[in-house]
Specification:
alpha+beta, 3-stranded antiparallel beta sheet, 3 helices, 18% helix, globular
Length: 128
C-alpha cells in the first residue's frame, strides 16, 4: 500500500505539510497520551483533518514484526521494498490538545492548474 496522501472531498487545492516537534519525541508522547502501547507500537506517521482539526490518526509500526528501534525499523523497510507493517490508531481530540506537542507547522497548498510545475516570484507584498 502506498504512503497516504492528503485528500478532501473535491481536492480544490493539494500540497505538502511539515511539522517540527519540540524535541523529536512528541509523537511518542502523544501516542502514550492516547494509551497506545509505545513499547510495541512505534509511531511513524500522523494525519489530521477538519476545520479546525478534530480527527486524528497515528500510524505506528508493529515492532513485534520489526524491532523496537528506529534504525532497525529503517533496515526492515529497506529489506521489504520500503514497506512497514503498521497499525492505524484513530481518535478525536481538540486541536489545542494536539498542537501543544508541535513546535512548528507549515502547510502548502496550490490550486490544480494544468501544466503548472513552478512559480517565478516577481514581488513580495506584506499585508500586515
Amino acid at each position: 500500500m502506498p504512503l497516504p496522501t492528503a485528500s478532501t472531498q473535491y481536492n480544490d487545492m493539494k500540497g505538502t505539510a511539515a511539522v517540527d516537534w519540540h524535541s523529536g519525541s512528541e509523537l511518542h508522547e502523544l501516542a502514550k497520551s492516547k494509551e497506545i502501547d509505545t513499547s510495541r507500537y512505534f509511531p511513524v506517521g500522523f494525519i489530521f483533518s477538519g476545520v479546525p482539526p478534530k480527527s486524528f490518526t497515528i500510524h505506528a509500526v508493529d515492532t513485534n514484526l520489526t524491532q523496537p528501534d528506529f534504525d532497525k525499523i529503517s533496515e526492515y523497510a529497506r529489506a521489504h521494498d520500503g514497506e512497514l507493517p503498521i497499525v492505524e490508531f484513530h481518535f478525536t481530540a481538540d486541536w489545542d490538545e494536539i498542537s501543544k506537542y508541535m513546535k512548528r507547522l507549515e502547510v502548502v497548498v496550490i490550486r490544480d492548474v494544468k501544466h503548472l510545475t513552478s512559480f517565478h516570484t516577481i514581488d513580495n507584498v506584506h499585508l500586515d
